Amino acid sequence: DHDTAVEDLRDHLAAQLTRARRRSTALTGAVDDHDLVRQHSELMSPLVWDLAHIGNQEELWLVRDVGGREPVRQDIDELYDAFKHARAARPELPLLGPAEARGYVGEVRDKVLDVLAASPLEGRRLLDRGFAFGMIVQHEQQHDETMLATHQLRVGPPVLDAPPPPRGGPVGPAEVLVPAGPFTMGTSTEAWALDNERPAHRASTGAFHIDTTPVTNAAYAEFIADGGYRDPRWWSEAGWAHVRAASLVAPRFWAREGDRWFRTAFGVTAPVVPDQPVVHVCYHEAEAYAKWAGKRLPTEVEWEKAARFDPATGRSRRYPWGDEEPTGLHANLGQRHLSPAPVGAYPAGASPLGVHQLIGDVWEWTSSDFRGYVGFEVFPYAEYSQVFFGPDYKVLRGGSFGTDEAVARSTFRNWDYPIRRQIFAGFRCARDAEPGESA
Ligand code: AVJ
Ligand code: FE
C-alpha cells in the first residue's frame, strides 16, 4: 500500500546516500592531507574542494530547501559555488581543511537523514518520487567520478585498488545495421532523470551502421602507426589546430618504449591492453580516428537509438539489455574495476541488435552539441544544464567504469569541451547505410 511504498522509497534513498558517501570517503581517505589540498592538475579541483562542495550542495537542497532548516554554514556557500571560482583558482581559496571538511559533510548528512525521515516525499515536484534526494545522490556520485579522474592525474605510488575487469569474449560482427525510422528518445517517467534528459519525444534517424564495440586500443594504435596524428586529412580544422598546438601524439597517459605502448593508470604503468576500449582521448581524436577508418562518430540520437530501441516491440528500453537495473554482469560501472573491460566482457549487457558495452567502460563521444530537447524545462536550477547549452560542448553517452549506476541511465547526457582528455572518454564509430540497404 501507499505507506509501505513511501517507507521503501525512504530506505532506498537512505541506502543510496550511504553508498555514495562510502565512495567519497574511500576516494578522499586514500590519500594524505597534503594530497587532499594539492592541485593535481589545473583542470581539477583539490579533492578537499570536491568533498566540501558535495556537502554544500546537499546542505543547499536538502537541509535548507527541502528540510526548511537553518543553514549549517552559510558563510562558505560562495567558496563552493562552482560558478564563482574556476577550478585552477580553488587551491588559493580559504577552503575548509581536510578535518573540517569531513566534519562538515558529516554534520550535513546527519541533518539530511533526519529530514528524510520526516519528509512526506510528495506534495511538491522536487520531492516527487524522492527526486531531490536522488539528484543529490547523483551529484555526489558525479563528483566521485571527477575525483577518480583527479586520482588518475595524481602522480605517485598507487593508492586505489580493485580487481581486474572480466575477460573479453565474442562480439559477433564488427557493426550492425540500425533501421531507419522514429523511436522514443529521452524520458518523462524515469524518477531521477535530470532536466536535460526530459521530456520523452519522438526522434528519427536514417538507416545507419554502428560499431558493436567501442574502438579498442589495438585499433587506435593502428591509426597512430599509420601516421594519423601527422596527417591533416583526418582532422577538422579545429582538431588539426589543437593537435599541433597541444603536440598530441597518442591518448593521454600513453608512452612509447621501443615499438610498444605503455599506459599509466592510477599509478601503475603496464603495457596497453589491445582489446580494451581506448580511453582518455578527446573529441578531436575520436573524430579523426573515425574519418581515418572511413566512418564517423554517431550523433547523440543515433547513439540513444542503438542503446534503447527494440525493433521487435518498437519500444525504447531503459537499458540496452532491458528494463532491469544494472548488475556486475551487465556493465562495467561504479569503479568496480579501475579500467575499461575488454570488448565482449558483458554479453548480458548487449542491446537487441547486438551492440555491446554501450553502458559503462568508457564515455562515448557523439558528434552532437549539447542542447535542450524540444520541450526542455529548467529543473530545478539553470546551472545544472541550461547554462552549458550551445556549440561549445559535445555530448558524451553511456558512462564509464567510474560512473555509478545511479547515474548511468541510457538517457543520461554528459558533456565536455572537445579538447578534454582527463575524463574517462572513448568512442565508437558509425556510418550511413548504403541507399537501399535495410535490415
Ligand atoms: C554533468 C559531469 C558535466 O561535473 O561538471 C556536478 C556534473 N554538475 N556538479 C560536472 C555536475 C554540478 C557535471 N557533468
Ligand atoms: Fe557540483
Automatic annotation (TrEMBL):
Keywords associated with the record: Iron, Metal-binding, Monooxygenase, Oxidoreductase
Molecular-function GO terms, alphabetical: gamma-glutamyl hercynylcysteine sulfoxide synthase activity; iron ion binding
Residues at which gamma-L-glutamyl-L-cysteine binds: R87, A88, A89, R90, D416, R420
Top-tier EC class: oxidoreductase
Entry superkingdom: Bacteria
EC number: 1.14.99.50
Keyword Metal-binding among record annotations: yes
Annotated DinB-like domain residues: 16-147
CC cofactor: Fe(2+)
Residues the record lists as binding Fe cation: H53, H139, H143
Catalyzed reactions per annotation: gamma-L-glutamyl-L-cysteine + hercynine + O2 = gamma-L-glutamyl-hercynylcysteine S-oxide + H2O
Pathway(s) of this molecule: Amino-acid biosynthesis; ergothioneine biosynthesis
Keyword match Metal-binding: yes
Entries under Gene3D superfamilies matching the protein: dinb family like domain, paralog of FGE (formylglycine-generating enzyme)
Domain called Sulfatase-modifying factor enzyme-like: residue spans: 173-431
NCBIfam families: egtB_TIGR03440
Family the entry assigns: Belongs to the EgtB family.
Job of this protein: Catalyzes the oxidative sulfurization of hercynine (N-alpha,N-alpha,N-alpha-trimethyl-L-histidine) into hercynyl-gamma-L-glutamyl-L-cysteine sulfoxide, a step in the biosynthesis pathway of ergothioneine.
Protein name, per record: Hercynine oxygenase
Biological classification of the source: Bacteria, Bacillati, Actinomycetota, Actinomycetes, Pseudonocardiales
